[in-house]
Amino acid sequence: MTEAETRPAIPVAAELLDDILHVYKPHCRYLKRAVVEPGAPGEPLPVVLRGDFGIAESCYIDDTGHLNAVEVNIAFNQAYYVLTAQACASRLVPELADWSLERFRRWYLEGSLIHDLSSRFKRDNDPRAFQGEIAIASAVRTRRFVVLKLTHRFWDAHDGLASGAVTMALGEGKPGPAQGDAA
After folding, report:
1. For a designed S-S bond to 169, which of 9, 40, 44, 145 qualifies (C-beta 3.0 to 4.6 A apart)?
2. What is the distance between the alpha carbons of residues 152 and 134, in angstroms, rounded to a whole number?
3. What is the mean pLDDT of the chain?
4. DSSP state of 5
């Protein structure tokens, strides 16, 4: 892809970041700033979120001195929610074309299901200040869900590195009873 074929990056508005991350306790909001990079015209994926993260205080354990698996999962979840919200708001992923930002806001907690998650820790990351990126690599519609395959990578100024892959299913929560079933 040449520079002429790229689409401009979208800075994530602080209001959107706050709106989506309000479900986390204030000291558990690890994603501080983000930008979303759309795919190229005619080749919409990958869509990438690059962000600045920081964990002043772990939300569940005494300070381990390094970014651990639980914190990577929380950082990924926050980046996923914000990336998908921006993708819905800006119509970046064709398989999410019928997902407005309002629809995503209604369903993102109940309707975002981790199907598969893997992480690798190559070198310790400083949790107090690190960067990360997640990318929607592919998207497929099924009858009930949009299945998103994502990659993630987190690093710090001291050459720390963690990476992995996640398959998410996004839908509108649990289905109601089938027609003819008792409620």
Report:
1. 145
2. 4
3. 91
4. G
Which residue from 11, 7, 29 is spatially nearest to 20, judged by alpha carbons? Answer: 29
Structure token pair of residue 49: 């979120």
Instruction: Mention every residue, 6+ apart, whose C-beta is less than 8 A from residue 54.
Output: 30, 32, 127, 128, 129, 130
Q: Terminus-to-terminus CA distance in the chain, angstroms?
A: 53
C-alpha angle 50/55/58, rounded to 5°?
135
Q: What tokens were used for 95?
A: 């398989």
Q: Looking at the DSSP assignment, which residues form a beta bridge with residue 134? A: 49, 152
pLDDT of residue 182: 45
Q: Each residue of 17-65: pLDDT tens digit? A: 999 999 999 999 999 999 999 998 889 999 999 999 999 988 888 777 7
